Amino acid sequence: MTAELVRGQNHPLSQARLEIRISARTPIVAAATLGDEQGRIHGVEWVAHPGTPTLPGLEVSRQAAADHRLAVDLDAMPEAVHRVSVLLALPTGAGGPSRFGAVATPFVAVTGLDGNEVASYTITGLEAESAVVALELYRRQDAWKVRAIGQGYAGGLADLFTDQGLPQAQQLAGSINEAVAQGMARAVPAPPPRTDGDRSRQTAAPALGPDQGGPAPQGTSGPGSQPTSPYGPQTSGASGQPTPPPTSPYGPQTSGIPGQAAPQPSYQGGAGATDPAQPSAPTSGGSINYSHPGRQTAAPPPPPPTAPPAQPGQPAQPVAGDATGWSMDERLYNQVWGMFEDLARTAAAYRSAVDFAESRMDKELDQVLSDPRSRIGGQGDAAREAAQAKHTQLVNQARATLDRDIAQLTAESEVVEPALPHAYARWDNPVWHGYRVPMEIPMALRLGDLHLPESDRLRIPMLVRLPLERGLWIDSGSSGSLDGSYTDSHDLRRLATETAVAHAARLLAVYPAGEFTVHVIDPAGSGAQALAPLVQSGVLAAPPAVGAAGVAEVLARLTQRVDLVQMAVRGGAPDSLPPDFDTSEQLLIVNDFPHGFDDRAVNQLRYLADEGPAVGVHLMMVADREEAAAYGPLLDPLWRSLMRLTPTPDDHLADPWVGHAWTYEPPLVPPGSQVLQHVLAQVAAARAKHR
Asked: Which of 54, 273, 446, 494 is 20 to 30 A distant from 62 in Cα terms?
């Protein structure tokens, strides 16, 4: 699981080749310094920056940009290097912001080459600082760790380098700023705002998510608990901010010493020319270039305009996929995330305006009532009416703005919803009628819809990144739905199991054949009817496990799988797994928990919830937390590690910006529809051919 660090916290690194992703939503300069055991820099040749971007085992961006990817190869670091500090700075003289307190909070994530986050850190608390040490990778007893730093400097890079013991701090800071100013590192601005009438959209960069930045932990919403974020720990962005698929994890790297610019590869025609389609050969004494020489590593291009420009005074016509991204799926993902942000912000502005109107009216009435001469009579009545009129005017103005924004978002939703691919679409979308098993895993999956009380008709898809970073808990508790339509505990349990089946079917449908396996534990057989679509279609790895013996057998098998993969990865020998080892993602559905579970089984379940997602074993529990309370606080960590979803509409989710209580609606199959059976039949047929 991703470690969400706070200032001063560290986390071990099990991989040598890493990527550091930075998202700031405004052009910033990224650099890195190499330090000795005391953290001191021995000279300017120990600093990687846009003017000198490549050092052994390290490469930084060559330009100021809103998003960065830094490549790190810890095995290629010189023996004298014990610390790698990642630095962020605002460009000087560029007409942009001069302090981090005026820009969005920077987000930094350390990922493996597969794109999975190892640790993330949101740098909070910055105000007047214009340069900051974001985090550091440090070596202790031949093992590397990452530590969140967040140390800012109001004096910029000069003060930062001086603090790290560099004698030429002023000269180096000046050369970096000059390189940026002269265009050696041309700034790439954040995606420009898109004007839709009177509102503007900034496309969210990926990871925090709608699945993956650092919102409040999910899955803790039991009775009396606070709402949790619908998008969980946002990767590459948190909160979420969606990032493009990993492209070039390592830039050109050659042997040499710190401070010497590495020669750039040249691909020219003629005899003996290097084929750009082939990976570069390793060079002696340096790290290997893992990048594809012909692959584009710039920011995703904006989509071409597909709609005529809006007439003056008229809102722009919405277009599906008009966000930035490498593919249409990613553009739609970013567009959905932008719609979610827009609705959150416009609702927050409306609520703030209403609160201001209320406080202003109360203040004016207090002033009237504080004077005994105006408490009674015509003067007091007139003052009260004037205060009430001002309040009504302010509220009406705020509501008009809100209605305008919601109308524009609704129009956009009506265009986007029919264009969504299978992974993002509702079950009633016609796209499912032409379903075919995909060849690639999508970047996200729809787990339901979200809406606010101010916009009850507008539904925003709740998308989470794949693969899942945390398990799911389908709450079968008897708290009931918002509309009171489900109060019977038996109906709620059945509906919770049906919801779990719908989620499992979606996961099976969006993965290529043979790359996702589902196991079911149903100790008492109480979910036989709801689980019938999975059982009858033949998509399960085995029939649902029943009884205590069945529970023990499935848990033991999956626990052993987690142990084997962890040992192989930690030992640096992932190819040493048994030949018949199933490398597909695994999902375990546990129905009617805790029936049939003893203490050992409960501990194994907690182990799978904590350690499983990192090695491809995911958990989906259908349970009532109150019924499981008999185990005491033992299960509290289990509930906290899962994302709580409900089988009926419930307002237990919160966004990571303003804390709105969003109403979540599960993605249930329409009554009487055969779409679920059709999709599962396609999946089963593809699995049979794959075998």
From this structure: 273
